[in-house]
Amino acid sequence: xxxxxxxxxxxxxxxxxxxxxxxxxxxxxxxxxxxxxxxxxxxxxxxxxxxxxxxxxxxxxxxxxxxxxxxxxxxxxxxxxxxxxxxxxxxxxxxxxxxxxxxxxxxxxxxxxxxxxxxxxxxxxxxxxxxxxxxxxxxxxxxxxxxxxxxxxxxxxxxxxxxxxxxxxxxxxxxxxxxxxxxxxxxxxxxxxxxxxxxxxxxxxxxxxxxxxxxxxxxxxxxxxxxxxxxxxxxxxxxxxxxxxxxxxxxxxxxxxxxxxxxxxxxxxxxxxxxxxxxxxxxxxxxxxxxxxxxxxxxxxxxxxxxxxxxxxxxxxxxxxxxxxxxxxxxxxxxxxxxxxxxxxxxxxxxxxxxxxxxxxxxxxxxxxxxxxxxxxxxxxxxxxxxxxxx
Length: 391
Known about the structure:
Elements lengths: L2 H4 L8 H6 L1 E4 L7 H16 L3 E6 L3 H8 L4 E4 L8 H11 L4 E4 L2 H13 L4 E6 L3 H4 L3 H16 L3 E4 L2 H10 L7 E3 L16 H5 L6 E6 L8 H13 L5 E6 L5 H10 L6 E5 L4 H7 L2 E4 L8 H8 L4 E4 L15 E3 L4 H13 L1 H18 L2 H19 L1
Helix pairs in contact: 5-6, 6-8, 11-15, 14-16
Protein backbone atom coordinates (compact mmCIF):
# COMPACT_ATOMS: atom_id res chain seq x y z
CA UNK A 1 0.00 0.00 0.00
CA UNK A 2 1.40 3.41 -0.89
CA UNK A 3 1.07 6.75 0.83
CA UNK A 4 -1.62 7.90 -1.59
CA UNK A 5 -3.91 5.14 -0.33
CA UNK A 6 -3.60 6.23 3.28
CA UNK A 7 -4.12 9.90 2.48
CA UNK A 8 -4.34 12.48 5.24
CA UNK A 9 -4.13 9.87 7.98
CA UNK A 10 -0.37 9.60 7.51
CA UNK A 11 -0.05 13.35 8.16
CA UNK A 12 -1.99 13.34 11.43
CA UNK A 13 -0.71 12.69 14.92
CA UNK A 14 -1.63 9.03 15.35
CA UNK A 15 0.30 8.45 18.56
CA UNK A 16 -2.92 7.89 20.49
CA UNK A 17 -3.95 5.08 18.16
CA UNK A 18 -0.44 3.64 18.05
CA UNK A 19 -0.47 3.44 21.84
CA UNK A 20 -3.96 1.91 21.86
CA UNK A 21 -4.42 -0.60 19.05
CA UNK A 22 -7.57 -1.78 17.29
CA UNK A 23 -9.57 -5.00 17.44
CA UNK A 24 -11.60 -5.43 14.25
CA UNK A 25 -14.38 -8.00 14.59
CA UNK A 26 -16.16 -9.62 11.64
CA UNK A 27 -17.76 -13.00 12.29
CA UNK A 28 -19.35 -13.34 8.85
CA UNK A 29 -19.16 -16.80 7.32
CA UNK A 30 -19.77 -15.77 3.71
CA UNK A 31 -17.96 -13.45 1.36
CA UNK A 32 -19.50 -9.97 1.11
CA UNK A 33 -18.88 -6.27 0.79
CA UNK A 34 -18.03 -6.07 4.50
CA UNK A 35 -14.82 -7.95 3.71
CA UNK A 36 -13.62 -5.10 1.52
CA UNK A 37 -13.87 -2.52 4.28
CA UNK A 38 -12.25 -4.83 6.82
CA UNK A 39 -9.29 -5.50 4.52
CA UNK A 40 -8.91 -1.80 3.69
CA UNK A 41 -8.86 -0.88 7.37
CA UNK A 42 -6.46 -3.66 8.34
CA UNK A 43 -4.04 -2.75 5.56
CA UNK A 44 -4.07 0.90 6.60
CA UNK A 45 -3.49 0.05 10.26
CA UNK A 46 -0.57 -2.20 9.31
CA UNK A 47 1.00 0.44 7.07
CA UNK A 48 0.64 3.14 9.72
CA UNK A 49 2.18 1.00 12.46
CA UNK A 50 -0.98 0.86 14.57
CA UNK A 51 -1.32 -2.43 16.50
CA UNK A 52 -4.38 -4.43 15.46
CA UNK A 53 -5.93 -7.85 15.12
CA UNK A 54 -8.90 -8.97 12.98
CA UNK A 55 -11.11 -11.52 14.74
CA UNK A 56 -12.84 -13.84 12.25
CA UNK A 57 -14.46 -17.25 12.18
CA UNK A 58 -11.85 -19.84 11.31
CA UNK A 59 -12.20 -21.06 7.74
CA UNK A 60 -14.45 -18.19 6.60
CA UNK A 61 -13.60 -16.51 3.27
CA UNK A 62 -12.40 -13.41 5.12
CA UNK A 63 -9.98 -15.55 7.14
CA UNK A 64 -8.38 -16.83 3.94
CA UNK A 65 -8.23 -13.36 2.37
CA UNK A 66 -6.53 -11.77 5.38
CA UNK A 67 -4.11 -14.67 5.75
CA UNK A 68 -3.14 -14.56 2.08
CA UNK A 69 -2.49 -10.81 2.35
CA UNK A 70 -0.23 -11.30 5.37
CA UNK A 71 -2.50 -9.28 7.67
CA UNK A 72 -2.86 -9.90 11.40
CA UNK A 73 -5.83 -12.23 11.56
CA UNK A 74 -7.03 -14.03 14.70
CA UNK A 75 -9.25 -16.97 13.70
CA UNK A 76 -11.81 -18.19 16.21
CA UNK A 77 -12.60 -21.89 15.93
CA UNK A 78 -16.21 -21.76 17.11
CA UNK A 79 -19.68 -21.31 15.69
CA UNK A 80 -20.49 -17.64 15.68
CA UNK A 81 -23.46 -18.29 17.99
CA UNK A 82 -21.17 -19.75 20.65
CA UNK A 83 -21.11 -17.39 23.70
CA UNK A 84 -17.52 -18.42 24.44
CA UNK A 85 -16.59 -16.01 21.64
CA UNK A 86 -16.93 -13.30 24.31
CA UNK A 87 -13.97 -14.78 26.19
CA UNK A 88 -11.99 -15.22 22.96
CA UNK A 89 -12.42 -11.54 22.13
CA UNK A 90 -11.61 -10.46 25.67
CA UNK A 91 -8.41 -12.51 25.53
CA UNK A 92 -7.40 -10.92 22.23
CA UNK A 93 -8.01 -7.41 23.53
CA UNK A 94 -6.00 -8.02 26.71
CA UNK A 95 -3.19 -10.04 25.12
CA UNK A 96 -2.42 -7.37 22.53
CA UNK A 97 -3.43 -4.34 24.60
CA UNK A 98 -6.11 -3.20 22.16
CA UNK A 99 -8.20 -0.24 23.28
CA UNK A 100 -10.45 0.21 20.23
CA UNK A 101 -13.06 -2.32 19.14
CA UNK A 102 -14.79 -2.03 15.73
CA UNK A 103 -17.58 -4.55 15.07
CA UNK A 104 -18.75 -5.07 11.48
CA UNK A 105 -21.74 -7.40 11.34
CA UNK A 106 -24.65 -8.45 13.53
CA UNK A 107 -23.02 -11.30 15.44
CA UNK A 108 -19.86 -9.22 15.82
CA UNK A 109 -21.86 -6.29 17.18
CA UNK A 110 -23.75 -8.43 19.69
CA UNK A 111 -20.69 -10.13 21.16
CA UNK A 112 -18.61 -6.94 20.96
CA UNK A 113 -21.24 -5.05 22.93
CA UNK A 114 -20.75 -7.51 25.77
CA UNK A 115 -16.97 -7.64 25.39
CA UNK A 116 -16.53 -3.86 25.42
CA UNK A 117 -18.25 -3.62 28.79
CA UNK A 118 -16.73 -6.73 30.36
CA UNK A 119 -13.18 -5.93 29.22
CA UNK A 120 -13.61 -2.17 29.71
CA UNK A 121 -12.49 -1.37 26.20
CA UNK A 122 -12.65 2.42 26.09
CA UNK A 123 -13.21 3.17 22.38
CA UNK A 124 -16.24 1.37 20.94
CA UNK A 125 -17.25 1.47 17.27
CA UNK A 126 -19.91 -0.42 15.30
CA UNK A 127 -19.63 -0.12 11.53
CA UNK A 128 -23.09 -0.68 10.00
CA UNK A 129 -23.30 -1.77 6.36
CA UNK A 130 -27.03 -2.16 5.74
CA UNK A 131 -30.52 -1.34 6.98
CA UNK A 132 -31.43 -4.46 8.93
CA UNK A 133 -35.16 -3.66 8.80
CA UNK A 134 -35.04 -3.83 4.98
CA UNK A 135 -32.55 -6.67 4.72
CA UNK A 136 -34.50 -9.24 6.73
CA UNK A 137 -38.09 -10.07 5.78
CA UNK A 138 -38.76 -11.97 9.02
CA UNK A 139 -39.88 -9.64 11.81
CA UNK A 140 -38.37 -11.95 14.42
CA UNK A 141 -35.02 -12.07 12.65
CA UNK A 142 -35.08 -8.32 12.16
CA UNK A 143 -35.67 -7.73 15.89
CA UNK A 144 -32.81 -10.09 16.72
CA UNK A 145 -30.42 -8.20 14.46
CA UNK A 146 -31.57 -4.80 15.66
CA UNK A 147 -31.10 -5.94 19.26
CA UNK A 148 -27.36 -6.10 18.55
CA UNK A 149 -27.35 -2.45 17.52
CA UNK A 150 -29.43 -1.48 20.55
CA UNK A 151 -27.00 -3.35 22.80
CA UNK A 152 -24.10 -1.44 21.25
CA UNK A 153 -25.95 1.85 21.74
CA UNK A 154 -26.51 1.06 25.42
CA UNK A 155 -22.86 0.07 25.74
CA UNK A 156 -21.55 3.44 24.61
CA UNK A 157 -20.69 2.67 20.98
CA UNK A 158 -20.35 5.22 18.20
CA UNK A 159 -21.66 4.13 14.78
CA UNK A 160 -19.87 4.42 11.45
CA UNK A 161 -22.47 4.35 8.65
CA UNK A 162 -21.39 3.36 5.13
CA UNK A 163 -24.29 5.18 3.45
CA UNK A 164 -26.80 7.93 4.18
CA UNK A 165 -29.78 5.57 4.43
CA UNK A 166 -27.98 3.52 7.09
CA UNK A 167 -27.33 6.69 9.08
CA UNK A 168 -30.97 7.82 8.80
CA UNK A 169 -32.15 4.35 9.87
CA UNK A 170 -30.03 4.46 13.01
CA UNK A 171 -31.20 7.94 13.93
CA UNK A 172 -34.88 7.88 12.95
CA UNK A 173 -35.77 4.22 13.51
CA UNK A 174 -33.49 3.08 16.32
CA UNK A 175 -33.29 6.45 18.08
CA UNK A 176 -29.51 6.69 18.15
CA UNK A 177 -28.41 10.33 18.67
CA UNK A 178 -27.04 11.87 15.49
CA UNK A 179 -23.89 12.98 17.28
CA UNK A 180 -23.10 9.30 17.91
CA UNK A 181 -23.12 8.51 14.19
CA UNK A 182 -20.54 9.18 11.49
CA UNK A 183 -21.31 9.00 7.77
CA UNK A 184 -18.35 7.39 6.00
CA UNK A 185 -19.35 6.20 2.55
CA UNK A 186 -17.63 3.16 1.11
CA UNK A 187 -14.66 3.77 -1.15
CA UNK A 188 -12.17 1.80 -3.24
CA UNK A 189 -8.51 1.93 -4.14
CA UNK A 190 -7.59 2.84 -7.68
CA UNK A 191 -6.61 -0.03 -9.93
CA UNK A 192 -2.88 -0.35 -10.51
CA UNK A 193 -3.44 -1.65 -14.05
CA UNK A 194 -6.33 -2.13 -16.43
CA UNK A 195 -7.88 -5.60 -15.95
CA UNK A 196 -7.87 -8.10 -18.78
CA UNK A 197 -11.48 -8.79 -19.82
CA UNK A 198 -12.71 -12.32 -19.15
CA UNK A 199 -14.09 -14.14 -22.19
CA UNK A 200 -17.56 -14.35 -20.69
CA UNK A 201 -19.38 -14.75 -23.97
CA UNK A 202 -17.36 -17.82 -24.91
CA UNK A 203 -17.80 -19.20 -21.38
CA UNK A 204 -21.57 -18.86 -21.68
CA UNK A 205 -21.71 -20.03 -25.30
CA UNK A 206 -22.92 -16.69 -26.64
CA UNK A 207 -22.03 -14.82 -29.83
CA UNK A 208 -19.04 -12.45 -29.61
CA UNK A 209 -21.30 -9.43 -30.16
CA UNK A 210 -23.96 -10.39 -27.56
CA UNK A 211 -25.01 -7.48 -25.33
CA UNK A 212 -23.79 -8.63 -21.92
CA UNK A 213 -25.41 -7.57 -18.68
CA UNK A 214 -23.55 -8.54 -15.53
CA UNK A 215 -25.08 -9.11 -12.10
CA UNK A 216 -22.48 -9.67 -9.39
CA UNK A 217 -23.34 -10.48 -5.79
CA UNK A 218 -25.10 -12.89 -3.50
CA UNK A 219 -28.21 -14.60 -4.79
CA UNK A 220 -30.55 -13.20 -2.16
CA UNK A 221 -34.13 -11.94 -2.63
CA UNK A 222 -33.26 -8.32 -1.91
CA UNK A 223 -30.77 -8.25 -4.79
CA UNK A 224 -33.71 -8.32 -7.20
CA UNK A 225 -32.56 -10.94 -9.71
CA UNK A 226 -36.15 -12.01 -10.24
CA UNK A 227 -37.15 -8.53 -11.43
CA UNK A 228 -34.44 -8.57 -14.07
CA UNK A 229 -35.48 -12.04 -15.23
CA UNK A 230 -39.07 -10.86 -15.52
CA UNK A 231 -37.91 -7.84 -17.54
CA UNK A 232 -35.93 -10.11 -19.87
CA UNK A 233 -39.01 -12.28 -20.34
CA UNK A 234 -41.12 -9.24 -21.24
CA UNK A 235 -38.51 -8.02 -23.72
CA UNK A 236 -38.37 -11.46 -25.34
CA UNK A 237 -42.16 -11.54 -25.60
CA UNK A 238 -41.90 -8.30 -27.57
CA UNK A 239 -39.25 -9.77 -29.85
CA UNK A 240 -36.14 -8.30 -28.20
CA UNK A 241 -33.68 -11.11 -27.48
CA UNK A 242 -30.53 -8.97 -27.52
CA UNK A 243 -29.72 -8.81 -23.78
CA UNK A 244 -27.76 -11.69 -22.22
CA UNK A 245 -27.38 -11.98 -18.46
CA UNK A 246 -24.20 -13.21 -16.75
CA UNK A 247 -24.88 -13.94 -13.07
CA UNK A 248 -21.87 -14.21 -10.74
CA UNK A 249 -22.58 -15.27 -7.18
CA UNK A 250 -24.14 -17.95 -5.02
CA UNK A 251 -26.89 -18.00 -2.44
CA UNK A 252 -30.21 -19.41 -1.35
CA UNK A 253 -32.10 -17.98 -4.34
CA UNK A 254 -30.12 -19.94 -6.93
CA UNK A 255 -32.61 -22.80 -7.20
CA UNK A 256 -35.70 -20.60 -7.60
CA UNK A 257 -33.86 -18.37 -10.07
CA UNK A 258 -32.80 -21.32 -12.19
CA UNK A 259 -36.42 -22.49 -12.19
CA UNK A 260 -37.51 -19.04 -13.40
CA UNK A 261 -34.94 -19.10 -16.20
CA UNK A 262 -36.22 -22.47 -17.41
CA UNK A 263 -39.87 -21.45 -17.07
CA UNK A 264 -39.29 -18.21 -18.99
CA UNK A 265 -37.33 -19.99 -21.77
CA UNK A 266 -34.22 -17.91 -21.05
CA UNK A 267 -31.69 -20.74 -20.69
CA UNK A 268 -29.83 -19.69 -23.85
CA UNK A 269 -29.46 -16.11 -22.59
CA UNK A 270 -28.85 -16.44 -18.85
CA UNK A 271 -25.66 -17.96 -17.45
CA UNK A 272 -25.03 -18.83 -13.78
CA UNK A 273 -21.28 -18.59 -13.19
CA UNK A 274 -21.19 -19.34 -9.44
CA UNK A 275 -18.86 -17.63 -7.00
CA UNK A 276 -16.20 -15.59 -8.79
CA UNK A 277 -13.20 -13.63 -7.60
CA UNK A 278 -12.32 -12.10 -10.99
CA UNK A 279 -14.79 -9.24 -10.59
CA UNK A 280 -12.61 -6.69 -12.36
CA UNK A 281 -12.24 -8.99 -15.38
CA UNK A 282 -15.99 -9.65 -15.45
CA UNK A 283 -16.72 -5.93 -15.38
CA UNK A 284 -14.14 -5.30 -18.09
CA UNK A 285 -16.09 -7.64 -20.39
CA UNK A 286 -19.58 -6.35 -19.53
CA UNK A 287 -21.60 -3.82 -21.48
CA UNK A 288 -23.71 -2.97 -18.43
CA UNK A 289 -23.86 -3.79 -14.73
CA UNK A 290 -27.40 -4.22 -13.42
CA UNK A 291 -28.37 -4.02 -9.76
CA UNK A 292 -32.20 -4.08 -9.40
CA UNK A 293 -32.07 -4.40 -5.60
CA UNK A 294 -34.83 -3.60 -3.16
CA UNK A 295 -32.41 -2.64 -0.38
CA UNK A 296 -28.75 -1.57 -0.35
CA UNK A 297 -26.32 0.66 1.45
CA UNK A 298 -23.68 1.91 -0.98
CA UNK A 299 -22.73 -1.37 -2.71
CA UNK A 300 -19.10 -1.96 -3.57
CA UNK A 301 -19.98 -3.51 -6.92
CA UNK A 302 -21.37 -0.16 -8.10
CA UNK A 303 -18.15 1.53 -6.98
CA UNK A 304 -16.13 -1.14 -8.77
CA UNK A 305 -18.06 -0.49 -11.97
CA UNK A 306 -17.54 3.28 -11.64
CA UNK A 307 -13.84 2.73 -11.07
CA UNK A 308 -13.65 0.91 -14.41
CA UNK A 309 -16.01 3.21 -16.28
CA UNK A 310 -18.66 0.50 -16.69
CA UNK A 311 -22.20 1.96 -16.89
CA UNK A 312 -24.67 0.87 -14.21
CA UNK A 313 -28.44 0.38 -14.24
CA UNK A 314 -29.73 0.21 -10.68
CA UNK A 315 -32.78 0.67 -8.50
CA UNK A 316 -33.12 4.19 -7.19
CA UNK A 317 -32.40 3.68 -3.50
CA UNK A 318 -31.35 6.10 -0.81
CA UNK A 319 -27.64 5.65 -0.25
CA UNK A 320 -26.95 5.31 -3.96
CA UNK A 321 -29.08 8.14 -5.33
CA UNK A 322 -27.35 10.75 -3.19
CA UNK A 323 -24.00 9.65 -4.60
CA UNK A 324 -24.81 9.02 -8.28
CA UNK A 325 -26.92 11.20 -10.60
CA UNK A 326 -29.53 9.64 -12.89
CA UNK A 327 -28.67 10.05 -16.56
CA UNK A 328 -25.23 11.46 -15.74
CA UNK A 329 -23.27 8.90 -13.72
CA UNK A 330 -25.83 6.08 -13.54
CA UNK A 331 -29.21 4.93 -14.88
CA UNK A 332 -31.90 4.56 -12.23
CA UNK A 333 -35.27 2.79 -12.31
CA UNK A 334 -37.83 2.45 -9.50
CA UNK A 335 -37.26 -0.65 -7.38
CA UNK A 336 -39.56 -3.60 -8.22
CA UNK A 337 -40.78 -1.90 -11.44
CA UNK A 338 -40.32 -4.59 -14.10
CA UNK A 339 -41.77 -2.49 -16.93
CA UNK A 340 -39.46 0.46 -16.20
CA UNK A 341 -36.50 -1.90 -15.95
CA UNK A 342 -37.29 -3.41 -19.33
CA UNK A 343 -37.63 0.01 -20.95
CA UNK A 344 -34.31 1.12 -19.44
CA UNK A 345 -32.56 -2.00 -20.74
CA UNK A 346 -33.89 -1.49 -24.27
CA UNK A 347 -32.84 2.16 -24.15
CA UNK A 348 -29.35 1.24 -22.96
CA UNK A 349 -28.88 -1.32 -25.73
CA UNK A 350 -30.12 1.15 -28.35
CA UNK A 351 -27.82 3.96 -27.22
CA UNK A 352 -24.19 2.80 -26.79
CA UNK A 353 -22.98 6.41 -26.92
CA UNK A 354 -25.09 7.18 -23.84
CA UNK A 355 -23.60 4.22 -22.01
CA UNK A 356 -20.06 5.34 -22.85
CA UNK A 357 -20.84 8.85 -21.62
CA UNK A 358 -22.33 7.61 -18.34
CA UNK A 359 -19.46 5.20 -17.76
CA UNK A 360 -16.87 7.93 -18.34
CA UNK A 361 -18.68 10.36 -16.04
CA UNK A 362 -18.93 7.72 -13.30
CA UNK A 363 -15.21 7.03 -13.60
CA UNK A 364 -14.42 10.73 -13.26
CA UNK A 365 -16.63 10.96 -10.17
CA UNK A 366 -14.94 7.90 -8.67
CA UNK A 367 -11.53 9.50 -9.12
CA UNK A 368 -12.72 12.67 -7.39
CA UNK A 369 -14.96 11.42 -4.56
CA UNK A 370 -14.99 7.66 -4.02
CA UNK A 371 -11.43 6.69 -3.19
CA UNK A 372 -10.51 4.45 -0.28
CA UNK A 373 -8.26 6.97 1.45
CA UNK A 374 -11.26 9.15 2.34
CA UNK A 375 -13.09 6.23 3.96
CA UNK A 376 -9.96 5.20 5.87
CA UNK A 377 -9.31 8.74 7.11
CA UNK A 378 -12.91 8.98 8.34
CA UNK A 379 -12.65 5.62 10.09
CA UNK A 380 -9.41 6.53 11.86
CA UNK A 381 -10.92 9.86 12.89
CA UNK A 382 -13.88 7.98 14.42
CA UNK A 383 -11.46 5.79 16.38
CA UNK A 384 -9.57 8.84 17.65
CA UNK A 385 -12.77 10.63 18.65
CA UNK A 386 -14.02 7.58 20.53
CA UNK A 387 -10.70 7.32 22.38
CA UNK A 388 -10.77 10.98 23.39
CA UNK A 389 -14.36 10.74 24.59
CA UNK A 390 -13.85 7.60 26.65
CA UNK A 391 -10.45 8.27 28.21
